[in-house]
Write a structure and sequence with these properties.
By secondary structure, the protein is an alpha+beta fold. It has ten helices and 38 strands. Strand 37 and strand 38 form a beta hairpin.
């Protein structure tokens, strides 16, 4: 009986072992057939956890590798488009060189120009049609650039004023306007009443070339005066009530209570008086040399000790006296006090701000000047070409009574406006190469000359086309301002008929053919945060489209603080900044291609410290934020598992407007071909830069792809150690389990037979 019980117990134990071995065999067979050692989580919890995480990373890296491959293909398409653009521009360069030959006829040049213009159109087609899976690559969509808007016309106000007559003017009485004495009965007709006399006076003034640039209108017994164009410069028109014998009262700004008034309300914004200038040498001797420059005086200082409380800076008030600015410790109590700062830079920054913002009695001289600082000096520059003058036309004086420092001059007498003076032009189309003078003979050595620009016509009646001495003539318009040309004495053109008048006009066109007309316009700047009150003005000959590509500020840690802005592929830069950019400080960034193209940055109400990288980064961030950089993120590709493992592929715009900086190029003359060649050369440099950038991206992606492949291989090997089946080892385990199971089955069978034999014996 005991043997039977033991046999049953042994059988039960063998059954349990069979279950265990069966499970082991199943797991081993699954591991062998699937190649996965971790058939169940319970097999190796730690290994499963690690291997699962590693597999997830491997999957992500494999997807990232696919992204790298797509990005590489993306760049190959872009590079192909850029390469074609380079070939087109190279051909345009060859055409420009060919067109700049005196052996070509007009017909031949027209043929070259036709191909040139067709190639330009092909550039635009290429820019618009080069895409990868519907994503445009070369039209600026992937550029970091942002578009800036330039003011197209004046957003300011025109200066104005009036003379109000309580009674009629008598013959012989005088009215002194802008330094010119007008006599009743001689310069204008006396009417039967004040209203009629004022009407006659307005008509006479509008016909008097000495008052070009201003409009006069009669309103009953009141004569209104308004500058034709907006701008502070219009405020300089004077009304000498005290010096006139006629009786009237004036609305305007009285100058220090002397009975002399000026117009008021003129403000600079957008395109205003003084913002248009001609750069270069005149191309014909018919005009005097184009040597126009604004008067300038520098006040130089060495240390903060050069300026002490009670020291003064005096600027001519325009009427024989001075407006005195006094340096003080502490907050200023009046508009003529300048606060001494903690260092020289701060003091000069405060001085520039105080003088530029000054208005009221005594500002006749001040408002003709713009004051800037570089941290160690104050620079006073006339807002227009020529000398800055008082009400009598005498150059303004300036005095400095400080503990130290010196003035480069004591008068604003070093300005000039000879040759071509475009101060008064306020026509946004009056830019670049100006052509189109026409002349109609009106008598012996007399001609009526006109010039149409942007739908606005400028006219001048020239009474002597062969002056013996330099003679200035004034062109006026309706709504576009005015300009002056100085005919060179002894170099004129005799006019005895229409053919001579046409030659006179041709010579004016030749004189302008070598000039480049630039304008200074406001650029859109948000002016918020750290740049509240800041502004940006661009001087150039093209303003559409304007694409800002980059801003870079470096600190003075390495001895050369620098501010750099890239617009349309052109770098504007100011080097060797001081340790700070003061409040309202003005900086002029000059183009590295053309010194006549500048970008003027006027700081707002925040002082920036450039003595540290952090300070430079703060200014750069403020500029980028206010200017809308980056304009776009480019094409973003995830090239790794982490969120920061991204690349943004940015490619510039290659449209003709960007490549040629908005210029309307042609090959119709040798001069035009020379200008086209200059622009095409710049376009070649820009395209080379873009291709180099694409190549750099592609090279970096090659390394990224190789690194991903290596990482995938190594990580997969590490994961395999944890998760993959070791076939040899697992086969041995499987064989062992199989033998165990066979032994267990044999043992169970033997036990069952033994138990049967025992039961049979008991039954007998």
């Amino acid at each position: 009986m005991v043997s039977a019980i033991n046999s049953a117990a042994m059988s039960q134990q063998v059954l349990q072992l069979l279950g265990i071995s069966g499970k082991g065999l199943r797991n081993s067979l699954s591991a062998l057939s699937s190649g996965n050692r971790l058939v169940q989580a319970s097999t190796d919890i730690s290994a499963m956890s690690i291997a699962t995480g590693m597999q997830s990373q491997i999957n992500g890296m494999r997807t990232a590798l696919m992204n790298v491959s797509q990005a590489s293909s993306f760049l190959e398409v872009a590079d192909g488009g850029l390469q074609q653009a380079q070939l087109i521009v190279d051909r345009m360069s060859a055409l420009s060189v060919q067109a700049n030959s005196g052996a070509l006829s007009d017909s031949a040049r027209r043929g070259l120009n036709t191909e040139f213009q067709n190639l330009r159109q092909e550039l635009d087609r290429l820019a618009g049609n080069t895409n990868f899976n519907g994503v445009n690559l070369l039209d600026g969509t992937l550029s970091r650039t942002t578009s800036l808007q330039a003011s197209d016309a004046s957003g300011g106000q025109a200066a104005s004023g009036s003379l109000n007559f309580l009674s009629n003017v008598s013959a012989g009485q005088t009215i002194v306007l802008n330094g010119v004495t007008l006599t009743a009965g001689t310069d204008f007709t006396v009417g039967s009443n004040a209203q009629q006399t004022v009407s006659n006076l307005a008509a006479a003034l509008n016909d008097d070339s000495r008052f070009d640039g201003f409009r006069f209108a009669a309103n009953n017994a009141s004569l209104s005066i308004e500058a034709e164009a907006a701008g502070r410069a219009g405020n300089q028109f004077t009304i000498n009530q005290a010096g006139s014998t006629a009786s009237f009262f004036t609305s305007g700004d009285e100058l220090l209570g002397t009975g002399v008034f000026s117009l008021s309300g003129g403000t600079d914004a957008g395109l205003s008086l003084g913002d248009t200038r001609a750069v270069g040498s005149v191309g014909d001797t018919i005009l005097s040399a184009n040597n126009g420059q604004a008067a300038r005086v520098d006040a130089r200082f060495n240390t903060a000790a050069d300026i002490q409380a009670g020291n003064t800076l005096q600027i001519d008030d325009g009427q024989g006296g001075f407006t005195t600015f006094t340096f003080v410790n502490g907050a200023p109590a009046t508009s003529t006090q300048i606060q001494i700062g903690t260092n020289l830079e701060d003091t000069l920054s405060n001085a520039a701000r105080t003088i530029n913002n000054f208005s009221g009695p005594g500002d006749f001289g001040v408002r003709q000047l713009n004051v800037t600082t570089d941290g160690r000096s104050l620079t006073f520059t006339g807002r227009q070409l020529g000398n800055a003058t008082d009400v009598n036309g005498t150059p303004l004086d300036i005095n400095l009574t400080t503990a130290g420092g010196s003035l480069s001059a004591t008068q604003f007498s070093n300005g000039s406006s000879g040759g071509v003076n475009l101060n008064g032009v306020v026509n946004n189309a009056f830019v670049g190469r100006i052509q189109g003078f026409q002349a109609i003979a009106s008598g012996t050595d007399q001609a009526d000359v006109s010039l149409s620009v942007g739908g606005i016509t400028y006219r001048a009646q020239i009474s002597d086309t062969t002056p013996a001495a330099d003679t200035t003539i004034r062109f006026t318009s309706d709504g576009g301002g005015s300009f002056e040309l100085t005919l060179r004495g002894g170099q004129g053109e005799a006019v005895n008929g229409q053919a001579d008048a046409a030659r006179f006009a041709d010579r004016l066109n030749a004189a302008f053919s070598t000039l480049n007309v630039t304008q200074t316009r406001d650029l859109s700047l948000e002016g918020s945060g750290a740049l509240i009150g800041a502004s940006l003005r661009l001087t150039g000959s093209s303003f559409a489209p304007i694409r800002l590509q980059d801003v870079n500020v470096t600190s003075n840690l390495r001895g050369n603080a620098q501010l750099e802005v890239v617009i349309n592929g052109e770098t504007y830069r100011v080097n060797s900044l001081g340790n700070t950019i003061g409040i309202n400080e003005q900086l002029t960034l000059t183009s590295t291609r053309d010194a006549n193209r500048t970008l003027q940055f006027t700081n707002g109400s925040t002082r920036f410290d450039l003595s540290s990288d952090a300070g430079a980064a703060s200014l750069q961030a403020a500029l980028e934020r206010n200017l809308g950089l980056p304009g776009g993120e480019g094409a973003r590709f995830q090239v790794g598992n982490n969120a920061q493992d991204q690349v943004n592929l940015t490619i510039g715009d290659i449209s003709s407007a960007t490549l040629f900086n908005g210029r309307d190029l042609n090959l119709l003359s040798a001069d035009a071909a020379a200008e086209a060649l200059s622009s095409v050369r710049s376009a070649q440099d820009y395209l080379t830069t873009q291709r180099a950038g694409v190549g750099a991206y592609a090279q970096a992606l090659n390394y990224t792809g190789a690194q991903l492949e290596t990482a995938i291989m190594n990580q997969d090997a590490a994961r395999a150690v944890l998760a993959d089946t070791d076939i040899a080892s697992e086969s041995t385990v499987y064989a062992q389990l199989l033998l165990q199971r066979q032994a267990q089955i044999a043992t169970l069978a033997q036990g069952n037979r033994l138990q049967g034999n025992i039961l049979q014996l008991l039954g007998n």
